[in-house]
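Suppose a colleague, Dr. K., hands you the sequence of a protein chain of 219 amino acids and asks what its three-dimensional shape might be. Before reaching for any lab equipment, you can write down a predicted structure in token form. Begin with the sequence itself:
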Amino acid sequence: MNLRTRLMQQLRGWGPVGLLYILLCTFTPSSQTVLPETFLDRAIPFNPAGVWIYLSFFIMVPLTYLVVDTPTLRWLTRALQASGVVAGTIFVLWPTTLHYPTIVDNGISAQFLVWMQKWDSRCNCLPSLHGALTALCAWALAKTKNFWVTLAGFVWGLAILYTVIQIRQHVAVDLSAGMLLGLLSGIGAQLLQKRSLPEAHVASPVLRTSDSKVAQGLK
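The predicted structure, expressed as tokens, is then:
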């Protein structure tokens, strides 16, 4: 599959998710549910320096689209679309937020995090799309059956998920919900892909028969 086709698949899969999230950032609900912190959140201290690994998510997604094979590419596109639709529905029906820490540090990482949060929605926490899409990309990279690519995807994904909590963009509850959403979307996309394969196999003999008849007619 050429680069242009891969970019189009990425636009079809990731584009609607981003557009939906941007539109929902303009939505201000009348009430929001505050998500609780767990022992896992308390075990990971807040550190704005994690923002850079957090942002590497925006490299991981397009890079995954460049690495995986054609069937995985289509699977990933469907899974991302499903995650976006489900998450967007939940964001509207059940807006959630969390207790964001006050940032007093004047360092570059801290100030960049402050700037980033100004543009981010604080009522679209559960499920975490960062968690869902990171899990799907790590899964897609594992489908390459290449040990080093799989390992890199796992370690990179784990680092991103850690920093999601470290910079308090999400807590363990909504991050876990996002990862679960990614898992279910991936399973659904996989089932849909397997269901479409028999139809292609049924159609192919018909085409071959038709082609042979045409060839005989030409003789």
